[in-house]
């Protein structure tokens, strides 16, 4: 090209730059529109080679479906969960794509569609979590869509076919093989993992962490290691273990130590143990799927409740007891009035039935549902009897149901939280571990302060920090509450506690239960992959199996879940009532005997040839006094010829 020609071309490009810029093929714009509609895109960012291409593409996208558009923004302002269109035919967009790849902006939060007539650059730093679709454009003949992935920065770039587009057939897109084959198999990629280990010996560490017999040593580390090795088998990667002393504490506002420091500076890719999520730690690392619910608890043998002795009275409230007593008193009075009326009107009721004793037996029979000893043809009597039995039957049914319910329910508890424990007479101690010190030192809760001052640091005594064995021994021998890791105290409880004491154990929370999570470094390419793997392990039951393997379950108490025999203590009021009834009946018996002897009437039986002399001999000197003598009717007839006026005859009229 001659110099004048080049000069003319430069002048034209200066006056009309859109004529000299690479123009986006209209078919490529249609393909991009079909792609975003298929992916259900809501926010689209476009990078074209000219303003004219950008305008035409924007008009096409807005005309076909509703999207939010951003035209060639600064890469730092690209929003999350957006779709990005990039025309790779100009040098400025090629540089832009390379810079975004180096800034690790090709992840699951930004999905790229790159349109080019060239093959992708082998040096392009895509990642295992990248969502980059490379549309190899062939002019009017359509395009072939490739999914790009690189498992490791030093490994070659992989291209997986994900679809094609043609003007007549439209878009065919399927990235199943890319998502489930290419990205779920890391091909034994080595990833570093930080694991806090304190008590376990370091020789042959990988095998020691699998030994279930030593699960009381670094339990959280062993559970996390088993979870990580299972995840490694699922995703096909290998682990390089880095042992640290602690999980990570804050050194200053910009630095942490322990496992968090190794994850933050990129020495390791993830943390193998479960980390509690805090706002400060979120500045240094990212969290993935959950591992275990950490719920530290205080355990103790609950003291016997005084209300056990009143179990027999629990089915009824005080108001119902008083109402029932008043009802039976009313039945007693009405029954007595009825017997008196029937005796006065008909005269068929004898003196025995027409008495308070007979009426009391009627009420007692109604309460015991045993029937009555007398009958009556009066309808009013039968109605009274029916209502009495019906009422007592309903009361008895509800009472029996209440008794059964009280026996099936767990024993009553008066200590249900830390406040109740602080106000109780129980002692309190903690296992001698670091987080218990930090909790009570930093806590501003008034309940924690009260528990600390009253129980943990008693006035004039040593702080109640003990080893797990000493704490369990104190729980077994005295009223004492203790906190330690459940995996540590489980074997000790089996050794020192009886079955009844195990059933009496009560657990209340020391801290609010929190979930623990696996962690990865900030913007890690394996974050979404770990989320997928951990959720799959949850669905398949691996996490539940590992929990049962490394953490002991609570003692299963028979009395709270299945049939249990009734104890003597809850039924002791019934025996007390029976004993009181014996004493009362004995006292009444003595009173009745004394009363009978004071009003005794001697009955003279029928005696043959009874004369006045024989009668005088029989009665002795008492015949001259006012002694009452009750003869049978036969005896009275025999004595008629020999009546002695010196004797007072009762129930006999001489004139007859």
Automatic annotation (TrEMBL):
Which coarse location class describes where this protein primarily resides?
A: membrane
Keywords, comma-separated and alphabetical: Cell membrane, Glycoprotein, Membrane, Receptor, Signal, Transmembrane, Transmembrane helix
What are the GO cellular component annotations?
A: plasma membrane
The record's listing under InterPro entries reads: Insect_Ionotropic_Sensory_Rcpt
SUPFAM superfamilies assigned to the protein according to its UniProt record, in alphabetical order: Periplasmic binding protein-like II
The transmembrane residues are: 574-591
Q: Which residues form the signal peptide?
A: 1-22
For whether the record's keyword set contains Glycoprotein, the answer is: yes
The record's subcellular locations are:
Cell membrane
Q: How does it sit in the membrane?
A: Multi-pass membrane protein
Q: What is this protein called?
A: Ionotropic receptor 7
Which organism was this protein described from?
Ceracris kiangsu (Yellow-spined bamboo locust)
């Amino acid at each position: 090209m001659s110099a004048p020609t080049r000069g003319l071309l430069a002048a034209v490009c200066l006056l009309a730059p859109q004529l000299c810029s690479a123009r986006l093929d209209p078919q490529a714009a249609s393909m991009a529109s079909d792609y975003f509609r298929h992916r259900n895109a809501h926010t689209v960012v476009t990078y074209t080679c000219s303003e004219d291409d950008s305008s035409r593409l924007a008009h096409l996208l807005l005309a076909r479906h509703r999207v939010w558009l951003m035209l060639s923004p600064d890469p730092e302002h690209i929003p999350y969960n957006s779709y990005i269109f990039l025309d790779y035919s100009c040098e400025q967009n090629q540089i832009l794509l390379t810079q975004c790849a180096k800034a690790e902006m090709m992840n699951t939060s930004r999905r790229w569609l790159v349109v080019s007539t060239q093959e992708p650059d082998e040096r392009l730093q895509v990642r295992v979590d990248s969502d980059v679709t490379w549309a190899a454009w062939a002019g009017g003949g359509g395009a072939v869509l490739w999914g790009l992935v690189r498992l490791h920065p030093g490994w070659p770039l992989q291209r997986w076919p994900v679809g094609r587009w043609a003007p007549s057939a439209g878009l065919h897109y399927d990235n199943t093989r890319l998502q489930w084959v290419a990205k779920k198999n890391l091909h034994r990629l080595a990833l570093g993992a930080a694991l806090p280990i304190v008590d376990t010996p370091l020789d042959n560490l990988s095998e020691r962490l699998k030994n279930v017999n030593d699960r009381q040593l670094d339990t959280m580390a062993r559970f996390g290691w088993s979870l990580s090795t299972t995840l490694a088998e699922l995703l096909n990667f290998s682990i390089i273990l880095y042992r640290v002393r602690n999980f990570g504490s804050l050194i200053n506002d910009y630095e942490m130590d322990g496992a968090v420091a190794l994850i933050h500076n990129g020495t390791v890719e993830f943390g193998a143990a479960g980390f509690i999520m805090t706002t400060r730690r979120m500045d240094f690392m990212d969290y993935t799927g959950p591992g275990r619910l950490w719920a530290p608890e205080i355990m103790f043998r609950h003291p016997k409740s005084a209300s056990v002795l009143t179990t027999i009275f629990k089915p009824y409230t005080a108001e119902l007891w008083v109402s029932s007593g008043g009802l039976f008193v009313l039945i007693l009075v009405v029954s007595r009035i009825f017997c008196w009326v029937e005796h006065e009107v008909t005269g068929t009721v004898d003196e025995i039935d027409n008495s308070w004793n007979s009426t009391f037996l009627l009420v007692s029979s109604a309460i015991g549902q045993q029937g009555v000893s007398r009958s009556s043809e009066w309808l009013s009597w039968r109605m009274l009897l029916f209502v009495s039995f019906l009422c007592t039957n309903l009361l008895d049914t509800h009472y029996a149901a209440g008794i059964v319910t009280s026996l099936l329910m767990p024993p009553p508890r008066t200590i249900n939280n830390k406040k109740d424990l602080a106000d109780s007479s129980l002692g309190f101690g903690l296992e001698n571990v670091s987080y218990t010190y930090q909790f009570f030192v930093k806590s501003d809760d008034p309940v924690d302060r009260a528990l600390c001052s009253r129980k943990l640091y008693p006035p004039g005594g040593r702080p109640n920090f003990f080893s797990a064995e000493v704490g369990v021994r104190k729980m077994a021998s005295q009223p004492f509450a203790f906190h330690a890791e459940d995996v540590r105290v489980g074997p000790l409880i089996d050794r020192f506690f009886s079955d009844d004491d195990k059933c009496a154990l009560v657990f209340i929370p020391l801290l609010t239960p929190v979930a623990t999570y696996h962690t990865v470094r900030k913007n890690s390419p394996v974050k979404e992959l770990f989320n997928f793997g951990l959720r799959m392990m949850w669905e398949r039951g691996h996490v539940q199996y590992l929990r049962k393997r490394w953490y002991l379950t609570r003692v299963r108490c028979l009395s709270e879940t299945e049939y249990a025999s009734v104890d003597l203590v809850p039924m002791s009021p019934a025996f007390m009532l029976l004993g009181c009834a014996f004493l009362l009946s004995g006292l009444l018996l003595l009173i009745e005997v004394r009363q009978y002897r004071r009003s005794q009437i001697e009955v003279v039986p029928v005696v043959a040839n009874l004369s006045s002399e024989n009668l005088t001999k029989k009665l002795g000197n008492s015949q001259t006094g006012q002694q009452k003598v009750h003869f049978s009717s036969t005896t009275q007839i025999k004595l008629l010829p020999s009546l002695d006026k010196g004797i007072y005859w009762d129930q006999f009229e001489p004139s007859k």
